Amino acid sequence: YPPWTQIASPLQNVYLVPPPPFVASEPSHENMQQVLHSINEWIPQTTVTRGAVKCVMDVLMQAFTSEAVARDLSLLQLSLEIVSQCIKHNVFGDNNSDLLAQRLIPQLKPNKNLIKTIKVGNMKQQIDDGSTLRATTYTLLQQMSYSYSTKITAFTVCVERGLKDGSEIKELSVDLMKHILDASWPEIRIRDEAWFTQTIIPKILERQEKIFASRPNKDTATSQQLEEWSRSCRGIQRALTLINDLGLVEVQMDLEPYEV
After folding, report:
1. How far apart are CA 139 and CA 121, in angstroms?
2. CA–CA separation, 136 vs 130, rounded Å?
3. CB under 8 Å to 23, separation ≥6 — which residues?
């Protein structure tokens, strides 16, 4: 067994041993692969100690605040895979889950280090290698428990960042918005209804107006452009439906997606 697990022997004795030595000051592929391997291979068969949880949290906290990791797509993918496996095996308690969610939320912002510009003929095109990471992060945040204040931060980022992102991310941001509203709307209405009606709803309506203004010409746009715009429309419509279902105000949905 690895040195960071707690094993019940046949005699019911429990052995507690020190945390692992592989946690370095700067996350590396080697130590993060070792963490991921340990989680996948050992945790389902053993009881995890507090020291083990602390080791995993230390690795993740360093990863999500490291400038070196922010430039390394594979390290970011490893970090999110560790989070995913820890959620699967219920490694985190509520406090750790909340702290980790606070580190994940900034990952919803497009990472300039992962955006490349390529030349296609006479045109320049941007390739965003970080979009898959953002999609994964939105999905992970739906699977975690975290505090009210962290939910408010996440919801704000969904509106301010997610609804401005690509069509897939728009849909995932609305999924997270719905998840938060389903769990916490009564508390939001008591504590922050003014913020919701005066800040959040106008920003969603603003996104609708900007998408409407970017409507492509059906006769000259490619089928891919039409599909992307229509999918974005459907994402915004879902967000507006969420607002209407709350019964606070009645918002008008002015967008009509193209049928491609």
Report:
1. 36
2. 10
3. 31, 55, 58, 59
Q: Rounded to whole angstroms, how far apart are CA atoms 60 and 104? A: 10
- CB distance 27 to 67 below 8 Å: no
Bridge-based pairing of strands 47-48 and 123-128 is unpaired
What is the rounded CA–CA span in Å between residue 106 and residue 20? 28
- Residue holding tokens 């960042």? 161
Residue type, 67: E
Q: How confident is the model at residue 45 (pLDDT cuts 50, 70, 90)?
A: low
Which residues lie closer than 8 Å to 188 by C-beta, 6 or more apart?
152, 181, 196
Cβ proximity of 189 and 195 under 8 Å: no
Per-residue pLDDT tens digits for 94-147: 889 999 999 999 999 999 999 998 887 787 888 899 999 999 999 999 999 999
173-205 confidence digits (pLDDT tens): 999 999 999 999 999 999 999 999 999 999 999
Provide the sign of the torsion angle of the four alpha carbons 228, 79, 93, 147, taken in this order. negative
Confidence of residue 15 (pLDDT cuts 50, 70, 90): very low
Beta-bridge partners for 127: 116
Q: What is the CA radius of gyration of the chain?
A: 22
Nearest to 104 by CA among 130, 67, 65, 55: 65
User: In which order are the strands placed within the sheet that holds 47-48?
Assistant: 14-15, 5-8, 47-48
